[in-house]
Amino acid sequence: MFKVLTIAGSDASGGAGLEADLKTFEEYGVYGMAAVTVIATMDPDNTWAHAVFPTTETALRAQLETAFKGVGVNAVKSGMLGSFDAVALTAEYLRTYSVPAYVLDPVMVCKGAKEALNPALNSAIADELLPLAQVVTPNLFEAEQLSGLADISTIDQMKEAAQIIFKKGVQYVFIKGGAKLPHQTRAIDILFDGTQFDIVEDELLRSSWTHGAGCTVSAAITAGLARGLPVREAVFLAKKFITTSLRGSFALNQWVGPGNPSGWRNDTLFGSR
Ligand code: PXL
Predict the structure, then answer these.
(1) What pTM does this model have?
(2) What residues are in contact with ligand 1 under a 6 Å CB criterion?
(3) Residue whose CA is closest, atom 6 of ligand 1?
(4) Burial class of residue 119 (count of CB atoms within 10 Å of its CB; 0-12, 13-18, 19+)
(5) Got the DSSP string for 37-55?
(6) Could you tell me how many helices (H) and strands (E) the chain has, helices first?
(7) Ligand 1 atom closest to Cα of 13?
(8) Tens digit of pLDDT for each residue in 96-139?
(9) Choices 3.30.420.40, 3.40.50.2000, 3.30.56.10, 3.40.1190.20: CATH for 3-264
């Protein structure tokens, strides 16, 4: 059994964060574990405003000890870290246990969670974690933060950002244009390995219910790497996985809706919806 750890926030609504990661790991047939960095909640009486409750340094260290030392991991991903302690602990454990397959999802945006929009924390993530990562998976906003480029809106600008981010020590940069890249008829992401660019594209789905899409795609890449896929194959498969998941997306309420990581399985079992 391949063992995979996510170091991430819990999304009490279940669509993003470690909940999305564990659902995705299950679909890939790998054994999922989670170290909780923050608990994110949403207020149903106040426009779904987010609140973030960090776990203590002691509680996070104990979880990492359980997973890295007590169980052993084949691959690791990190999502919302939410504190300098969480960044430092993630770096410490990745170094101590020299995990080769580490996917860094540099979560910096989450509507309403001001704590996540902390520039100093974003720099710590870049400085301490990019050099340890096999793959980093920024969306356009996060690519702007990591590269210093403003208003990325073309594939050429995505490529330029990828080259800048690559120089910070990560092995592969996967920038998600997705449905956010303007003037496209396909959902376009790019992968850069320091030499070669791959355009990773699939059907453009114009759903409003995309909560957790970033978490899901980085979890899918991590699970693919845990199973021994080379990075390019893991990324191509993850792109198919997220597209199928978003094809099955649905509303939780008037504010938010997730994709469906089990969507591909329902299609197989019950025919397309
Ligand atoms: O989608 C970003 C994200 C990541 N992690 C957690 C979240 C969110 C957004 O809500 O709650 C825990």
Answers:
(1) 0.96
(2) 8-11, 16-17, 40, 79-80, 107, 110, 212, 214-215
(3) 17
(4) exposed
(5) EEEEEEETTTTTEEEEEEP
(6) 9, 9
(7) 11
(8) 999 989 999 999 876 544 444 688 999 999 999 999 999 999 99
(9) 3.40.1190.20
